[in-house]
Amino acid sequence: MYFTYDLATKRPSDYSDGYTMGEFLYRLHFLAPLNQIGINIGRPFGYTLAGLVSFIFLFALISGLMLHWDKIKSNFFVFRPGNKWKTVWTDMHTALGVIGFPYQFMYALTGIVLIVNSVLIIPFSKYLYDGKEDQVYEALGYSDNTKYTYLYEPLTTSFKMGDFLDKLESKWPNSHMNRIFIKNYGDKSMHVVALYDADIDKNFAGSGKLIYRVADDKILFEKSAAENGSYLDYMKGFIYRLHLADFGGYPIKIIYFVLGIMGCFVIISGILIWLVARDKNNIPKRKRIFNFWAANVFMASCLTMLPVTAMTFIAVKLATKVDQPFIFHVYFYSWLALGVFYIIRRNIGKTNLETLLLGSVLSLAVPIVNGIKTGNWIWETYRSGSNDILLVDLLWLSLGIVGLLIFKKMLQTAKKENANGKKVTGATIKSHTKYGNSSDGDSTTGTGSSLPPKRAFALKNKPATEI
Question: Can you tell me whether residue 24 is helix, strand or coil?
Fold first, then answer.
């Protein structure tokens, strides 16, 4: 049984009814929603796919660093924002990629361990535990599968879980509860197994365990979370804390977020560089078309996530009932509709501009809607010390402001390029008309003058395309 209890409304709910936006984003980042589409491969499909992506990501990081090392050494401190778009993308890709490499490497590696640990455990379970994976997880401290003989006699000793947890809290003041296992509930052989983690500011990787027999009020096993941890404790704590950033408070979380955004820029700029490098006259037209469509699908899928996520935050606040189906329908249907629209439109430059504008406006609307519906305005949450709500509102506010500033800069650049495009002479137009191929940009002469393809994605190509 799974249920949550809302202390404000004093009402319990199951997993679907108690579903929140935080739970959705947490599960989405390792593709858990894909587990529900019914693909049976013996393991949860979403988790397996997320683990495969982590492997590919780790391979791309290592191979990318090795392949481009010579250029990285010479171009790391070079940034030329005034040059053509490909140069800007290349400089940004190089600098941000190297700066964020340690973080991305750590995140991919720890993600592999956490997401596909079941695959990594299979060899150990087969050769060391005779194929019994439950024993492996128990040895790693993830569960307690100890069997206690059921006596079929009612428990006569009174037991209150609240009092038991209060005693543990006073016994281990510098730790917090992780899990509670109740064995043989109501029987004379009833046992309670409590797993505790040490507070991060007291012990980086400590974990505690207590086994309590209710009938005679006896502690059968006790290990304090405040004591020096074992090798297993430190390895588990090291991997978890590095991946989840649950150490160092908000400064570490903000640093993780900024480094994650840098990784997004590296991936997007890499797609654009890859497309420009393959959109040349010596490449067959069918391959150029395929390359464009691949980049077009990738960019539409990625860039539409910003406005869709902001819109879902707003929908959650405006809806009268929010549960798992509601969040799934709002997010995935709007993402599908917006993604398909920009894929069919076939203009990566406009996709970038319009999703940035839409995402920025919706981002600014998130804290406003939150304030109107709940009264949790930014100044109110700051005054009351509601730091979690305050941080989320400030995040959306920052995304909206930065996005609008970038949008304004891009429009200024586009106007400047449009002005330069109008200076093209009539002779140049005739030359392009005579020798160029307006459909795909191939040139039939050796002069090197040809029109950019109509599917051009950079704003810089727009004037020439219009001509």
Answer: helix
Per residue in 44-80, pLDDT (tens digit) is 888 888 888 888 988 988 888 888 777 777 766 676 7
In DSSP notation, 347-411 reads: -HHHHHHHHHHHHHHHHHHHHHHHHHHH---HHHHHHHT-HHHHHHHHHHHHHHHHHHHHHHHHH
Query: Tens digit of pLDDT for each residue in 422-467?
Result: 554 444 434 443 333 433 434 333 333 333 444 444 433 333 333 2
Instruction: Give me the count of residues in the chain.
Output: 467
Beta bridge partners of 210: 194, 222
- The CA-based dihedral angle spanning residues 199, 200, 206, 210, taken in that order and rounded to the nearest 10 degrees: 20
Question: Hey, what are 214's tokens?
Answer: 């209710």
138 vs 136: CA distance, rounded Å = 5
- Provide φ and ψ at 443, rounded to 5°: -105, 140
Cβ proximity of 206 and 174 under 8 Å = no
d(CA 79, CA 339): 32
Say which residues have a Cβ less than 8 Å from residue 156's Cβ, sequence separation at least 6.
188, 215
> Are residues 46 and 111 in contact, defined by beta-carbon separation less than 8 angstroms?
no
Long-range own/partner contacts, residues 320-326 (CB < 8 A, 24 or more apart): 322/19, 322/20, 323/16, 323/17, 323/18, 323/19, 324/15, 324/16, 324/17, 324/19, 324/24, 325/16
Residue 13 in contact with residue 4, Cβ under 8 Å?
Answer: yes
What is the b/e burial string over 154-190, where b = at least 16 CB atoms within 10 angstroms of the residue's CB?
ebeeebeeeebeeebeeebeebeeeeeeebbeebbbb
Residue 421 identity: G
* Cα R_g (the chain), whole angstroms: 28
Number of other CB atoms surrounding residue 319 within 10 Å: 12
**Range from 88-97, 163-172, 278-287 carrying the lowest mean pLDDT:** 88-97
Q: Which helix (H) or strand (E) holds 313?
A: helix 305-318
User: By C-alpha distance, which of 212, 222, 100 is closest to 163?
Assistant: 212
Bridge partner residues of 176 (DSSP): 197
H-helix or E-strand containing 221? strand 218-223
Q: What is the DSSP string of 153-201?
A: -B--S---HHHHHHHHHHHSTTEEEEEEEEESTTBTT-EEEEEEEE-TT
pTM: 0.77
Place of tokens 């709002």: 330
> Virtual CA dihedral for 451, 457, 460, 464, nearest 10 degrees?
20
| Average pLDDT score over residue span 93-105 | 86
